[in-house]
Design goal:
Blueprint: E1 2-9, H1 13-20, H2 23-29, E2 37-40, E3 43-52, E4 55-69, E5 73-82, E6 85-98, E7 101-113, H3 116-119, H4 121-144
Helix pairs in contact: 2-4
Length: 146
């Protein structure tokens, strides 16, 4: 499954970069996520309660940030496991300045396993896009207020 999207922040690129590298800030903007725990250098653990189509479950997530080129880009490797399946994804996030803020682009692939494959790729894509857009909107609001 391909994942891609973009978002325009109203704040400077360095502020967006710094926020995306801070697990406490990231946890504060993602819907239905608990605390993000640091488990190593650029490695994190979290739990996320999510509903995908008719299925609902709590996912445990392990993520790592690699290939960092501050403040322009990084890769995020995520493995999520839950009672409704497993998702393994690799996403490249790119930031670029604009006259009024920062554009964020993300592109990657996700591999679905177990019940997740039965839900349907489009439902999973819509759910992921909704969560990402909500988190980025919350992050922009939070950063603009500082």
């Amino acid at each position: 499954m391909k994942v891609k999207g973009e978002f325009c922040f109203s704040v400077a690129q360095q502020l967006v970069w710094d926020a995306l590298q801070d697990p406490d800030i990231v946890a504060s903007v993602i819907p239905s996520i608990g605390k993000i725990e640091t488990i190593g250098e650029n490695a994190f653990y979290s739990k996320l309660d999510v509903k995908i189509g008719p299925l609902r479950g709590e996912f445990t997530n392990q993520a790592s940030l690699t290939d960092k080129e501050e403040p322009n880009s990084f890769k995020m490797l995520v493995t999520s496991n839950g009672p409704i399946g497993e998702i393994k994804s690799v996403v490249t996030i790119t930031l670029s300045p604009t006259p009024t803020g920062t554009n964020l682009f993300y592109v990657g692939e996700a591999l679905l396993k177990r019940k997740m494959t039965k839900v349907g790729q489009r439902i999973v894509e819509r759910t992921v896009a909704k969560i990402v857009n909500k988190a980025l909107t919350r992050l922009d609001t939070k950063l603009a207020a500082t």
